[in-house]
Design a protein that fits this description.
about 325 residues, mainly alpha, 2 strands, about 0% strand, flat
Length: about 325
Amino acid sequence: MTDAKDKAAKHSEDKETLLMRVEQEAVQNPFEGVDFSELELSLYRPRTLFSIILSYVVAAMTLFALIPLFAVLGMLLWRGGKVLSPTLFTNLPPAPLEQGGGFGNAIIGTLIMVGIATLITVPLGVLTGVYLAQAPSESKLASAVRLCSKVLTGFPSILAGVFAYGAIVLITGGYSAIAGGIALSILMLPTIILTAESAISMVPAKMKEASIGMGATGAQTVWMVLLPTAMPGILTGIMLAVARAAGETAPLLFTALFSNYWLASHGRLNLMQPTASLAVLIYNFAGMPFKNQVELAWAAALVLVTLVLILNLIGRSFSRQQIE
């Protein structure tokens, strides 16, 4: 019995010694036995050749897809940039056959209507996002709200204008900036809801548990932990929604229409009257047979694209902050 135990112990020691020797050899030369020539790229290998060909095809298709984008930007810079001047931002749209003019009222009208839509959608969208992120997975109400939000992301913008026309314009008896802002809010709402839910859901559960463990209530946890942590993602969604609303035309044709005058009259701001916007001004002036109006349409398009680009860049900066 003693000899058998000694033999077993010696066999175990030999096995451990062998394993230690193998591990030491692997550490000393981990690439032993690897043929590096097999890892080199060679066009004679079908798989390597196929990979290189596909890489060039993808790069070519990407450049081809960018041609329309840069063509539009180049045309805007060429046609709109040569007529751009400070007076365009302070003058009113000209009448037919009239020279000069500008689109200052359209810029102000766009900012006001987008601002109204933002004031409506940000509180509603963020609170809805908080509910969706905190609701139990089996909640039928949360599932229904989430589904409706996803469906609204593809909602045709012209239908939002028709809805606002029937719900606001017909009731109030006229076109107005308020009706335009409500129409734009319908388009902005789903983007803010879904991005807010996604940003809040990405907050680590340990932060919420630590807050509750310290005695904070559910409302305090949301207000002081979840929302500040998810704020970059929420702001990204808001910027993207604002950028989309700023470039919409169809909803404003049914709600705000257009105007050649300032919204403020005698020092008072009247939001219950037809309101100009950059998108509708471009739509109206681009089809006119007058050279001055067409040039103003190009300049307004350049200003609108620049505004949307700035908003998208701001949204990207917020998203990068969230990633970091």
